[in-house]
Queue: 4 jobs
Job 1
Amino acid sequence: MRRARTRRRAAAVAFAAVVPLLGGCGIQETDAIEAGGPASFQAFFDRNQEILLFFRSPDGGLSPVIRTPPDSSVFDGYVEGAGEENTDDTAEPIPTEKAVLALLGGPAKEDRAAGLSTSLPAALPGGSVKVELLPGGRVATLLPFFLEGLDTTALRQLTCTIAYSQDAEGQVVVELTGQDGVSRSGTCGLAPNSTGSTGNTPEETETRARPTPPATTG
Amino acid sequence: MSGGERSRVRVFGLRTRLLFAFLLVAAVSAGTTAALTYREARTAVLKTAQDTAVTSFREQVQLTGFSLPVRGEGLEDVLRDLARKSKPHPWVVFAEYGSLRASSGENPVSTVITPELRSAARANPRGAFERVVKDGVPYLTIAMPTVFKTSPDSVLPSGLVLYAVMRMTDEQITIDALLMAARDGALPGLAVALIPGLLAARSVLRPVRELRQAARSMGSGRLDTRIVVRGSDELADLARTFNESTGQLERSVRELREAEERARRFASDVSHELRTPLAGMLAVTEVLDEDADGLDADTARAVRLVSAETGKLAVLVEDLMEISRFDARAAELNADEVDVAEAIRNTLQNRHWTDDRVRTELPDGIRARLDPRRFDVVIANLVGNALKHGDAPVTVRLRTEAGAPGSPVLLITEVADSGPGLQPAVLPHIFDRFYKADAARTRSAGSGLGLAITLENVKLHGGTIHAGNRPEGGAVFAVEIPLHVEGAGG
């Protein structure tokens, strides 16, 4: 009886010793593990001659595209900018009204080729956009259509385009007002590490306030 | 006497258990060490490869320029360019942007990249990797979301996610080699552990074997057996205790034997001392007996009583001396080849038991080597007892019987009476000295030593004697003596 129990105990010990030996041989699968920051590539974006438009990508997110406004004196600006070697805002940035009109113009051919689309209604011919700077880094924009009925993506497209047109870092509170008098305000919040928007934000949960853990490898 | 072989064959003997314990300890320690080393080394190998791959992939992507929106044409060339700079192993680069899918390989979409990695990269613009084993081949899949600078201090996710898929074949080979090394290190360790295990088993088993041999030797009567005490461990203590115990046992047995010897000698001396005066008394009582008729009635009765009791005393003393000789092992067998039937007839004749009280069934021609005097005592005692305590007629039967193969032929002499038989309670003690079967007749004519002397005489012949009852009533005593007719010599 005792011997049997001893034998059973010995077998358990041997089992416990062998299991870790056999259990983890070879290369095991892992979960997706975060490892460092994103890759930052060179997009050659020049705020003085180009504008950032935000379109809707097939997965529902926003994709920024760089667009050169068609009626801008690109060549002159380019020369001017190159001559000044991009020193602080000597050139005039492209007006926000132009950026919003370009956004309302919808995705271009190459944008559509990449599967980008817009949630905004088509621009009304002759419609005008009025942009007004408010104290405290706020921008008020009057839009030539009804805000009521627009989805979140449409509001975010507008907010981000206006924000990045006004500020290189997009940290501006944007107030949108439609023809119907409905108004929405919020921040773009697409940039990593930017804090969430305040007030009546169109993007409720799109805040990218994430802690950044150190790069881990497994 | 196959104890040595038995201990060697025993499955769960001390040796097996000691070896097993040593092996177990060695296995656990070697296994644990090997397993831990292996795991650490594997982690290090994988970590190096992963970190190198993730870092170099990020660096290569950062050195590449993309237009926004990303254009499908020319994208594959850019990806192939990225794939050429793979490090540490060749990788395939996949790009996902909007609905664009492109790769440096043949398929624009990888089958290895998991949805988890995709969603991790989409949800959080940070680099991520995942190890995937597909069809037994381990892959490292890296997701690298891209951002671009909108200002010197600010970046914006571009929506372009690049993936690298790298086979970890080299790492697998390295890790398999690690496993082999761990195993090749652990197994000889186990083999080496057998040696101290065997030595330990030997050091324990040798004293145990000696102890067992000593105990057996003591059991067979050699009380002077001692063990050589080696060392000062527990087994040495055991050996020392064993030696002390045997010493005490030997002393006790010696004292016991001496006491017994003294008692025997005392009985022998007493009977010797009694014999001489008794001889004188017997001579006197014979004279008195002869003259008793001339005395008055009362005196004559007293004289005859004295004479009879003296006679009994003389018989008792003779029997005592006889039994003392047996106890002192001084009794000798003066064997002679005799005709057994003739010997029995002589005995009956000498005792005047020739009338119809004693019937005989004595086949002629049975010859055996017997001590005639002792055999005479045996037969006379048994027949006398039967006549005295049982009822006539008494039957004396003689026969031979072949025993089991290899054992000698037995000469069987049965003496049966026609009395009430022996009570079962009496049977175990019937051959005891001074045992009286009939408690009421304590003062019987016998000395009380008759059957004891019979038993000793039969034993001296190498035979046995049994008492029992016949099914038809009456006690029966059977004497079985091995028949040595041929080859006994002389």
Job 2
Amino acid sequence: MFDLLNGRITVFTGFGKGSGKTTLFGAAVNEAQRAGPVGIFTIGFDGASGKSPIIQVKPKDILITTVPLARAADASLDIIEALPGRSAIGRLCLARSVRAGSAALVGPEHFGQLASVIDLIRQKNLVNSILIDGAVGRVTHVSALPDSQFLYCAQADAANFRRVAENIELISALSNLPLDADGYRTDITDGKLHIEGPLTAPMLETIPKEITQISIETFSDCFLDAATFKRASRHLTISLRRHIPLLGFVIALRNVKREIFLDTVPSASSRIIFNPFEIEAA
Amino acid sequence: MKDVIAYAEFLDFRAKAAPETPFGRDAHEALNLFFDIDQLEAIYDQTDTLLSLMQELQSEPARLALITHHLKRLPRLPAHGQRIFDEIELFQVKKFLHNYRTLMELLPVEVRRLFGFDYHSQSLEAHLNLGRQAPETFYIADDYSAELANVRAEIIETDAQLQALDAKNICEIKEQYGFDFQGRLFLLVPKKSLRDSAFQSHLLSVEPYDDNLYSVRPVKCAAALTLAEKRQKLAQQERVCEELVLEAIAREVHAELPSLLEYYNTVLIFDLAWARARMARELGLTRPRLHTKNSIRITQGRFAPCESICAKHGITYSPLDAVFESGATVIFGSNMGGKTVVLQTTALLQLAAQAGLFVPAAGFETRIFRAFHYIGERRGNHIHQGLSGFGMEMRQFINAWQSLCADTDGTLLLMDEFASTTSSGEAEAILAAILEAISQKTNTCALCSTHFHRLPRIPNVRFLRMAGLKQKNVPTKPDADPVSEIAQYMTYNLINDDGKHSSDAIAIAQMLGLDEYLVKRAELFYSECI
């Protein structure tokens, strides 16, 4: 799986707290570093909570942090850009590691800023791969990052696995939506509706009956729950104007048999990796 | 003033002169008009010089692009009141110096001289570059302090020892228990694969994960923990050394602050001028000619919003040629004949000239105005203030009149169809009184567009009109765009009014598609009342 991260921008996103996202992210960073410098970023941590992800950087890796966190890092960091805005604990900067060690990541002010940073480091060809520790429970940010792919992490136990499975089925169905073939741009043409912005349940109610096809920008613009999406899909063909590749689902199972879980996710089963830290029985 | 700026759509025009540096953009945010000819001429000279440079560099596009590149790379300077600068602030100083110097080196000597470019911070820049750093990054390199270098060498050695101990540990675990961590922090191991000895092992920490799996992590040995403690102390020493370096560099930056501020002001003025020149070049703008006479002469003046509407409708845009003397000028004309555009063009050119910008005209000779007033429709504003359209206009005029009476330095007053929302007879009377009063004011230039053809011919008031429709009763093609149809038969230039023309309202209404029966009746009623 880690081979698929090489040379790409990958966002690690997850369902609920304790999804194993950050642990997997750390392992992925470690793997990606074997192929060359890595751009390592996070979304959603301002550094003030003390919960900023700590990662092990190698020389030439690139990250966003602040001066106080850079000073507290085991790694030694070279400042390569001052970023506009500041977090709760100081100004943000883009830094390159000079000496290996641990360092705390801080999220940018907004997704647009991260997109600009990524653009800058790609233009200068500073890294081989880019890994982003994404937000929990939301996938909206993935669409703000051009050319990115995403990986979805979740922890499933006996109590929540049906809910997790439902969510995975929805994400899988959304990412499988067809690309808008004819690129229709008008608001309503021949029963087709081009939707700008989020597709929500209340909006669905307002779609005229004669409409049979709708297009949304990316799958992350769909804010319908699984049941509503399924209902809508019966009478509407939903397509995407931009595709964001889904790399797969990484599921940390606790006290749930793999076969039982797989039965609940028929459309996503081929894209699931279970417990990546598990070793086979001797 | 705000009304005139909005009426002339001046901010959209001025936005095209956006500077490249962040501090240039801050300065550009504030709209400053200038009221001193010498000051404006100096600003125009700067633009002219850079326009010539851009022209010269046409054969060297890379150099031209580099000038813009280095301007874009110039960061804001940190606030200079503080004693210590942090790493980001020193990074900014270093990046500023590098880009300022490189930019200066790209400029010809006469340009440097005009803007006051100078550079004598080689020593500070070299110091910020210690340790073979890249020119636009900052790192407290080992070269700044021998003690820092020693501490860091010791850190690297300790890290290597720690790594070796961890590797040995992992190796031992693999040999004893067969768990291959391969860089992973923990493993999930099936219960049946765990021997009892693993639970007691000093090498492993074992915790249940679920009913079938255990989470297994390597445990650091005592030697590794001692080394980690040493590593922590070394990190503290490193921080102390770094602080000392930062203090030393901060002292140097402080000593250099007067020069830095000088560079900052120089490059700010250059950035603003570069943006003006770039805009003038891209839009084909012309240097205004300022004088101390009372007239305004416009040759081929253009109003971009109207130009783009014309382009959209496939209509040839007619630039404005006009001369306006001080006092009052009345402009009549057909509906859709371009009266408003005359006023908007004049306002735009005048605002641009006094903002230090070149203007969209082949020629623009003008004077300095101290005050600008616009009286006319302001979409919906009057409703919020509880006033009718007429009430709003009267309030605007009363304000303008007070300023006009007090002002001796020149007022540009633009009245677009003043009092058009009240009874025409009384409106004409009010307008006549205003025009008569303004005709006595040699320091005011008032342009008044109107359809009130019965205005008395007041001495010293000029009466002009848009040439208007060349032909009436033109058959309109069904499905044709009425705007472009009308434009085909319209002449948009200003001529002297002979008092014999109407506003062609019925003809225009007909061309716009008014029912033929209504047109006929309107013509009948009109012929009876004139």
Job 3
Amino acid sequence: MTAPPMIDRAQLSAFVDGELSPEESAAVVMHLADHPADQAYVDDLFAANAALAKAFAAPMAEPVPVKIRDTIRGTIMGATPTITPPSAQIIPFRPRPALVAGGLALAASIAAAIVLFQPAPPSALALGPVTQGSALARALETLPSGTVLSESADRDLMILATLPTDTGPCREVEAVDRAASQIELALACRTTNSGWQVEVVLKEPLAAATGEDGFLAADGAEVQGLTPFLDQRGAGLALSPQQEAALIEGGWTP
Amino acid sequence: MTDHFRHDLVALVPKLRRFAYSLTGNRQDGDDLVQAACEKALRNIDQFQTGTRMDSWMYRIIQTLWIDDRRRATRRGTALDPDDAHLSDEGKAASLPEDRMMLAQTRAAMADLPETQRAVLSLVAIEGLSYRETAEALAIPVGTVMSRLSRAREALLPKLGLSQGPRQ
């Protein structure tokens, strides 16, 4: 019986990288069956590749930045607005996987009181400045994360979290619209002129996101949807309830 | 030709941004790099050989620009996303969701690699290029691709808590 050929790490890497012929790959697979240490190394290589692909994946889900697009198209720079057209940033977000309780600051305050404001015309979350005095503006100004604001019988707003970013605090907002059967997830950021601006809106059908009891729970899918935008703004960790309360108390002045 | 080229280049931008992000470790620097690379490509459009791979050509322009830029900005160090900088921040990282923590760790480990290794690892492991395509894109021999790849992984895997060190 001949000794099995030695397979070194370079060959295992080549196997993982798809560099081997079908015959060579088959030989490696045979070898791995009785070399658990090599099998573990191959598993590690796959895991590292997956981690790398994920770590830098954000640009793949984003529209081409206007500045780069204009450069390529030869549009004169400065003559075109540098703000992405609103429609370009409204993208559907992936259906959520099974409901998991917890996540964000939501977990701690899932049973938080429902706050009823005076009736205000409910409206879909829209990109751009938030109208002063609107239900959304008041929610952004005054509500701690996790508190539900019923805009109407069919529409609830909830702030999910407050995050510090390069440009000041931003808040994640979720709107559940049962009439329109959809959930909107938005990122609203404090502007320099003491207002709020909705920077991103993600949407998904309600059916895919509602638990059997009709109750919604944060499972992280929406956070992933916003992650590229948060990364772009240099967002840090979600503020603690105390830090958030201090901002609300202080009228969002730094 | 030019219109066609521009059209294809726009379609390529997401991958170029991903590659640039993996090199710079920073979204803004990555985008600036892609921007500069697109300008350079359009200025030198005559040098692009129709029928060859545009992505390889663009990867090379990005890598070259980046290495040049890094040489000029000696000792400036890679600017990490503030997100990742929080990793050593009073243990606050412990409250990051595990997934996000792993991603931040991966970006930090990538940023620790020498630039030439980072480019090879990115093209092979993220962009899915073959060793030969990577060699052509970076204008280096295939053997160099393999040795840089091997060294990059030796350094990277333990930082991701994956490999127990050299076996041989």
Job 4
Amino acid sequence: MRALERVEGRDKVTGRARYAYEYPVEGAVYASAVQATVGRGTIAAVDAEAALAIPGVLAVVSCENAPRLRQAADAELAVFQSREVSYRGQLVAAVVAETLDTARDAARFVRIEYAPAAEGPDVRLHPGHPGIYKPDKVNPTFPADSVKGDPEEALPASAVQVEATYTTPAEHNNAMEPHATLAVWEEDGGLTLYDSNQGSSTVRDTLAEIFGLEPERVRVVSPHVGGGFGSKGTPRPNVVLAAMAAGVVGRPVKFAFTRQQMFSATGYRPPSIQRVRLGADGTGRLTTVVHEALSQTSMIREFVEQTATPTRMMYQAPNRRTAHRVTRLNVPTPSWMRAPGETPGMYALESAMDELAYAAGIDPVELRIRNEPETDPESGLPFSSRNLVACLREGAERFGWGDRDPRPAVRREGRKLYGTGVASSTYPAYRSPNQAYVRADADGRFTVRIAAADIGTGARTTLTLIAAETLKVEPERVAVELGDSSLPRASLAGGSSGTAGWGSAVVRACEALLPKLDAGLPAEATADTTDEVKAQEKYARHAYGAQFAEVEVDVDTGEVRVPRMLGVFAAGRIINPTTARSQFIGGMTMGLGMALMEQTVMDEEFGDYLNHDLAQYHVPACADVRDIEAFWVDERDAHLNPMGSKGIGEIGIVGAAAAVANAVHHATGLRVRDLPITPAKILTGM
Amino acid sequence: MDSANNSDGDVPPGGGRPPGGAPPGGPPVRAVITLVVNGTEHRIGVDTRASLLDVLREDLGLTGSKKGCDHGQCGACTILLDGRRANGCLALAVAHDGARITTVEGLADGDRLSPLQEAFIEYDAFQCGYCTPGQLCSATAVLDEAAAGWPSAVTPDITAATPMLDAAEIRERMSGNLCRCGAYVNIVAALRDTAERAERQSAADAARATSAASDARSEAIGHAQGVGRR
């Protein structure tokens, strides 16, 4: 298919693209949030007097006067419904004022008295925590544990064994656009929300439930969203707070979390402690794979990252076990961050595979090829397609892996040590039911409507190409309308399932339109893929990839730089090469951040995350990223969807951190099993 | 520990006002200032606490400049303030009475995009688009700064009249603008291509100017006809 520039590109480079906070709504006023300053306790009293005395302040909303909401499945959305404080940073009040400056200023004068709990906040995740339990399921609905064969018996009998514990820190999505909502109660009692989210249909349904409205009475408008990476996948408290505040003051209300508030209010990737045990025979064939993951959740909502699930299908081994455990702490509620589960899990598994390659004296690329399974090792299902080996081989060729000297710590020039590393990538190929509408007009133009979300993925452009291909017209004649809950119902931009789900509905609607075109224009057609998705045959559907990284490590400062990263992916048919390449590279860039700099540090004394801004939580900057290349192998898979595509938004981050960590070992001889790989860890390790 | 204040992160704990500010409960202090934004003069009353970014976005309706962190850490609010790039969120509006400001809305010439805007689209130098206005304003300034001979921390020869905008220079100079989608590779490519085109253009202009000057001399000697320059 032809490469197409982003169809909204002109709007984005001229500043015309409007994001949630930016709609010119007459009479809009501003809300500012107040967060709990204790990590555990009860609100004894809220004194709003000083804040209310400031000219321009319209209301202070808190547990003492908030309208009662219907219960939502996500307890984080029960804004101001309880006096309980279960973590520091929890939302406890909001000020509404005529101007932004007044709202922000007045928020400082809301005095909240707490009855602190007898004990301080319990915030530290560690393997000996007394609250550790086995969850019923892990995100979204996977069983917590799996077992096959007898790993405890097989492991000690294996010729080569590796056992290691890997830890990853809390990481924050940090989309550039803070979570924001502009809420308007209409005269007829309806609710309009200009909101930053990854799925307007979901926000509409959730808000309708919470405010006791029919879903048709709620409209969510989100044509442009400044990134999400999972954190806007479910409605966050901002949308409830804005709607509630607008109801209280009888005016439209604008609300955005500050960057600092986002660290406790909008979700994050929980820290993980992972123990991996691998056993292999003398040829490197795995006999045993054991992957156990421990994580944290909050007191008010259980979220368990599915960290060990990729290990269930990645490599062959007759004996295998995975397990997830979690504990509840006085911490903010974790949630989705780009490839939840796969990202930390594959860091651990792919690091352990590198350790096994050294222990067995086998090239790391070859080791992975030798452990390629015929079918999904746990479910026994056939793979719809699986081209990991092709990615490894093509990546090795392109990267120049062939002449690699495996010995660690032998390439030094001046102060720099050099090394290279490899890791596999994977991400499931999901598809959700969707609806779509398409219309053909007499002027030869087509309009596609679906409540899909373009959070920067290029969805608007990709769906344009998909519709144009099905209609057999030039993409310039197709206009896609998305990002509005009044359009046909759509699934989330999440789980890398957007294009597969939305695209299927668009194809079906276009197919239904084609026979009508001769009968006169305008003509229209709709589609609903619920039955099609339900009737899908059973296959193990996953995308795969291989990532290679080169690092240079300064022996004096311990600084690691990544001159080169290269990824090759097998993700079905690539629909738009332009935006696909950007997605892969963007994921790899975030993986580079995970490897070297990203971590949020818990305040163990008082609770909440300490380094809650972009000066202290480091994401890669332009100078951190040198040469990142992404390629893909041609993959035809008839068991996916009408386009033959697999999702590509998340796989780029999966395996990237392991490739860098493995390269650091190759450069230095040092195994840093605790991300991120900071200069301090290099210097103390060497 | 028993009383709360807004944990915005930018206010001192304790909830008190900084010395010299209006007392609690007093009305906001306002001042009338003049801003020339994208060539249009605005006479406007501003809250003396307001940043230029908030005045642009909330008072003038110019929402192209983005708020990503409000603390000068992300660069999404980068504007050209009296010809130089600045974080709009760190500039107190009342302190910039009379300032000339260019925002992303002012980069194009009517419907004609600037070469950088064109290149950003061509190289897919953005995804969600939220950092893009800041990236573009910053990149516009980078071209001017290099042309004016400003070195950076990675410039090999700081005495060079005009540092070459190679990839390393661009990465260094663009590191005040974060992009979480990870479009850096494409941003650098877009900026590099634009810089190279500009260099070729100025070399061609220089050559034409030299030849025009020499033509002009010949013509001055032998002919009456003037030499036009495009």
